Amino acid sequence: MSQRELAARAGMTNGAVSMIEQNKTSPSVSSLKSLLDAVQTPLSEFFSEVEDAGTPKYFYTADEFIELSPQDMGLGKGASRVSLRQLGNASSHSLQVLHETYPPGADTGEKMLSHQAEEAGVVIAGIIEITVGDQVRVLNRGDGYLFDSRLPHKFRNIGDQDCVIISACTPPTF
């Protein structure tokens, strides 16, 4: 792909892409996301370590999870305190598994989320209010959810302690 084609796909000027390519400027997070979207590369893949193709990895310690940045993924300011830790390199698999932590009052932002996937999860600790379409539910420890992620949705911790969720998404979204 040419530099001009990349710039057009990313909605950027050719000059901006050229400056980034020559290390004369660093892209903003939104510019980086636009460039990665243009080449169909998720942020998590861009920032993750490459797994050795010759040796499959089946097990991960807690410190090997990949911390994803909610704001880099386009979530709102309310999501800045949310921790999304990904198990392994989602680009190498058809399933993305996340360990999510929402401090009291944290949410996924004012804007409802929508993406091409299916999403499921189980609340491990705390409580969470989840909106899917026009339905709103409060889930407690042990409760779960499963929905088509193309439906507008959002998450909000309405409790007074951290809410921890183990979730899965297919295909990987971030």
UniProtKB/TrEMBL annotation:
<dbReference type="InterPro" id="IPR014710">
    <property type="entry name" value="RmlC-like_jellyroll"/>
</dbReference>
<dbReference type="Pfam" id="PF01381">
    <property type="entry name" value="HTH_3"/>
</dbReference>
<dbReference type="InterPro" id="IPR050807">
    <property type="entry name" value="TransReg_Diox_bact_type"/>
</dbReference>
<dbReference type="GO" id="GO:0003700">
    <property type="term" value="F:DNA-binding transcription factor activity"/>
</dbReference>
<keyword id="KW-0238">DNA-binding</keyword>
<dbReference type="InterPro" id="IPR011051">
    <property type="entry name" value="RmlC_Cupin_sf"/>
</dbReference>
<dbReference type="GO" id="GO:0005829">
    <property type="term" value="C:cytosol"/>
</dbReference>
<dbReference type="InterPro" id="IPR013096">
    <property type="entry name" value="Cupin_2"/>
</dbReference>
<dbReference type="Pfam" id="PF07883">
    <property type="entry name" value="Cupin_2"/>
</dbReference>
<protein>
    <submittedName>
        <fullName>Transcriptional regulator, XRE family with cupin sensor</fullName>
    </submittedName>
</protein>
<feature type="domain" description="HTH cro/C1-type">
    <location>
        <begin position="1"/>
        <end position="46"/>
    </location>
</feature>
<dbReference type="InterPro" id="IPR010982">
    <property type="entry name" value="Lambda_DNA-bd_dom_sf"/>
</dbReference>
<dbReference type="InterPro" id="IPR001387">
    <property type="entry name" value="Cro/C1-type_HTH"/>
</dbReference>
<dbReference type="GO" id="GO:0003677">
    <property type="term" value="F:DNA binding"/>
</dbReference>
